[in-house]
Structure formats: structure tokens, C-alpha cells
Amino acid sequence: MAGTGVLLGACSGPQSALDPAGREAAEVATLFWVMLAGAAFVWLVVIGAALFGSRWQRQPLSERGGLRIILWAGAVFPTVVLALLLAYGLRLMPVLRAGEPALTIHVSGEQYWWRVTYTGRDGARIETANELRLPAGSAAEILLDSADVIHSFWIPALAGKLDMIPGRTNRLVLHPERIGTYRGVCAEFCGRSHTFMAFPVVVMEPAAFEAWLAREAAPAASTAVDGAFLANGCGGCHSVRGTAATGTIGPDLTHLADRQMLGAGMFANTDENRRRFVAEAEEVKPGSRMPSFKALPPADLDAITAYLGSLR
Ligand code: CUA
Known about the structure:
This protein is α+β, with helices and mostly antiparallel strands. The protein has three domains: about 10-95; about 105-215, Sandwich (Immunoglobulin-like); about 225-310, Sandwich (Immunoglobulin-like), CATH 2.60.40.420. The protein is built from seven helices and twelve strands. It has helices at about 1-10, 25-55, 65-95, 205-215, 225-230, 270-285, 300-310; strands at about 105-110, 115-120, 125-130, 130-135, 140-145, 150-155, 160-165, 170-175, 180-185, 200-205, 260, 265-270. Helix 2 packs antiparallel against helix 3 and helix 6 packs across helix 7. The longest helix has about 35 residues, at about 65-95. The protein is elongated. The protein starts with a helix and ends with a helix. The chain binds dinuclear copper ion (CUA).
């Protein structure tokens, strides 16, 4: 009983395909339950036939009787049920690709983070990272690719997973319906920090989303770049729009302080965690391209931490 409780407890929450918050995930959840019912039905009939057959062992079944059980319960019945389930599953494929998207977002997988690019209402390119925001009630088209190895983009509460393949663009349509924060993950082993490649997905009221997108399009609130940030080379890899920091190797940091999480879904975005990430990136995120800056003078680390916290 306790075990059942634990199993069912895992069925809800921000990262569950069985607690859908969008149209595609609802179809996938229904498909799961239909497949489960079909599998249970096949299992019951085949086991029933086996018990029925073995009950006759004391007084052996005639050869024709035995063959008839094997033919109907062991072959015809599972084939019919599985063919019906296959037809039902195939019917879903065009349903999951449908929809006229009101929004296109480009997401690129990189070891081990997500480069997210929106297009502003004026056509401008707006780059952000490691967080996806979507308006509730309309379709969004997500174009997926990869800068290095194969990753896989999966937001269980919103849709099925889709691979991100270098040199190829895959298209996923999402219809988020329930406002809330969900969790997306990389679902394909991509290296040492694969486990640390996640992201929050915030489904918002449409008006709140438009306000967020307009804020995101603007340059950083504090355009006075901190000296320690530039002097230590942070701008070589990171961009802060509107400043001299224009690197494109790592995540864009323009509105970093507005994001919920840090390090691609690893930590809450607090001063303490920002400082730790700068000082110990190689330790907390093995294999990432960000070096540890633990040798910096504490005053520089403080200044960089404070500057990152001001990027709204
Ligand atoms: Cu990216 Cu696993």
C-alpha cells in the first residue's frame, strides 16, 4: 500500500507526464492510460488461457482443444488488441503536430545549457537562456537544434520529448493551458553534466507574457558594466545587451536576475548561489566550458555577484 502511495505520488507535480498542463501532454497521458488498459487486458486473457490450459493437465486437453486456445487467446486476440492500440497511437501523430503557432521560439541545446531565442513583436531577436516562458491558451512553435552533441528537449507536463540534433532543426508545437511553473529536462545523455541540464518553464497569463517579452527585449537595466566583470574577462563569453559585454559562447546574462534558476535548473537564483557558481563552476558543473574563478580576490567576487544580481 505504501509502495502504491509512493508510485502515485510521483504522478503529479511539475515534471509529470501524467499531470498534463497542455494539450499535447493531455493526449500523451490519455495514450498512456489506454495502452496500460490494453496491456492489462491482453495479460489477463493470456494468463487466463494458460491457467485454463494447465487446469486440464491432470486430464490432458485434446490436441485440437489446445491448439484452439493457443490460436485464439495466444495469437488472434493479442494481434487484434495491439492493432487497435497501434491505430489509436498513429492517429495521434498528426494531432500532435497541428496548430497555427502565434509564437516561434528557437531553442538550442549546448553542453550543458539552453540557448533560448525569442523574436520580439517588432521582429528583433531576443536572446535569453535556461528558462522558457509561454503564454497560456495559445500555440507556441519550438524550433530545436544543437550546437554540439545530441540533446533531447522534454517538458513532461506539456508534451512528448524531441531530440535536438546538430545540423538539423526539429519542430515541436506546445499548447500550454494551465498557468504555473513546470520543469523541462534534457532527456538524452550528453556528457558529464547531463543531469544538470534542466530549465523552469513558466506558463503565464497572455498579458503578463507580453509584458515580460517587452522587458526582455530591452537592454539591461544597469548599463554601467561592473569593472570586475569586464576586467576578469566575463564579457568574452557572456553578453549583457547594451554594454561592452558581447560574448556568445555562454548564456546571455542581460536579465539574469529575473530568472528563477541558475546553472540550467540547478539552483535557486540567489546571491549566494550566483557567487558559488562563479567561484566553482568546474566543481558544481563538471565538463562545462565555464572555468572556476575561485582564485579571484574576494572583493572582485563580491562585485561580480552584486553586478549579476542587478541585471533585471
Ligand atoms: Cu543535454 Cu543531456
